[in-house]
Amino acid sequence: MTQPNDSMEIDRREWLRRLALAGASAALPAGCSRRAAPVAEVLPADAPLRFPGKVPMRVINDRPPCLETPWSAYRHDLTPNDAFYVRWHLQIIPTAVDTRTWRLRVRGHVAHPLELSLDELRRMEPVSVVAVNQCSGNSRGLFTPQMPGAQWRNGAMGNARWTGVRLRDLLQRAGLKAGAVDVSFDGLDNGGLPSIPDFIKSLPVDEARREDVLLAYEMNGEPLPLLNGFPLRLVVPGWYATYWVKALSEITVLPHPFDGFWMAKAYRIPTTANAVEKPSELAQVTVPINKMNVRSFLTSHQDGAQVAVAQPCELSGIAFDGGSGIKQVEVSTDGGQTWQIASLDADLGRYSFRRWRFSWQPVARGRVPIHVRATSNAGETQPLVAGWNRAGYMRNVVEQVVVEVM
Amino acid sequence: MTPTTQQALPPTTARQRRRTMVALLVALFLAGAAISYVGIQYLPPATDTSGLSQAVTRPELLVQVDLPHEEFAIPPGPYREQFQVHCTICHSPRLAFTQPLLPEKKWQEVVQKMVTVYGALPTPEEAREIVHYLTVVHGQTPP
User: Fold this and answer.
1) Which residues of A touch B102 (CB under 8 A)?
2) What's the CATH number for A4-38+292-405?
3) Which of A61, A99, A194 shows the shortest C-beta gap to B60?
4) Mean pLDDT rounded to a whole number for chain A
């Protein structure tokens, strides 16, 4: 957690430096030549489904919009707003928000219900946090056996600097009454049919009062894009994005557990490590999904990228977890037989992407699998064999990218 | 009304008429103020309805976007129209066709969920027809 002003300045410079480096490295083959363009993410700029304020993105669904971030965006530590993935559940989404009439209401089991305008929120003490926002079902399309649901590859995640006010400050102003149990969050979206359960999520009151849970009105120093939750979005660092309610309009404090559909029936996981179960033996007991597990990715190269033999080549990528921070990243270029430790860039905060780098000099021509494995400060690491669950949540296997050494 | 006519009237009537005028003016003023108040407080502001600009009209106040639309070509197949009628009310047909190729049993589960959880409205027979359609056009061939 940092105050926005001084750290933002440093970060902006850093960001520009990285951007320039990324541009230069793309243009000049510096030892590690990449003759083939990255595959799979080259989307035509004139694709019919270009969404406002967004670069061309892989369209999982267009009504409601579910858009996947192009892989090249992860070369930046902070995912640019115009490439940040989009996921809505219900078809009536706010396409226009008038901040003169929009209000955030805090009500329920409180002494003083609140009704606040965006201006009033912006006049409160601003707080910033850099945090990964990752869909529970990120990478669902990679599970075997496959399951229905949005078929994301790895692009339903992003890292941003979120700025807003602390939820706990508002709850304190409203005055929680004794016996508060859950806090529920509702946004401006709805299903359009009365039979469709409204998208309302809840947090246990102790999570809601964490000092880093924010109501953010800015993302990377800009107002939130409308598709990412303008004018206000709940930010729950370390927890899956299903809790980060967009276009937030109503917060309700409850003296009993919240039992709405999106908590009681959807977004539930087995209680096993990494939520693993067998298709033939589904877990009987499930709980609401919560903290993210540890993951890492190679972002400098994609499957099929060409690399020059006997020349130094920098591999780089990202790692993150549910908030303990990244302790170590290891790289294997021999199919997982041996692992070597990668260097880590500056720490942007324990909820952020952590950039890792590894100098590699391929010795022989041919197809080479590259594996990356992260370990968190909490001691958690990534499995070598993929787990499975019925909903396709929480994938965190060590991923493989195969490059061509030429 | 001219001064001559006013002078022609008896003094008491002129006073009454003046009083009526003042009362009318006050009433008009109050009505105007009330309408303005309601307008400012409760009614949505006028917006750019040209439909051409999807950019922000006034960045800090009103943010709006137009979502793109591209008619998704629903593949031909038996009971295609049942799929079209019942499934695309709530979501784009694209969502169905970005799913993996699922066996009939899985499509049954999906359609059942749409009915029981989200309130889709096919009759049981139409639901079976939709499952048949999806299995034919986006299903898994049985081993």
Assistant:
1) 146, 148
2) 2.60.40.650
3) A99
4) 91
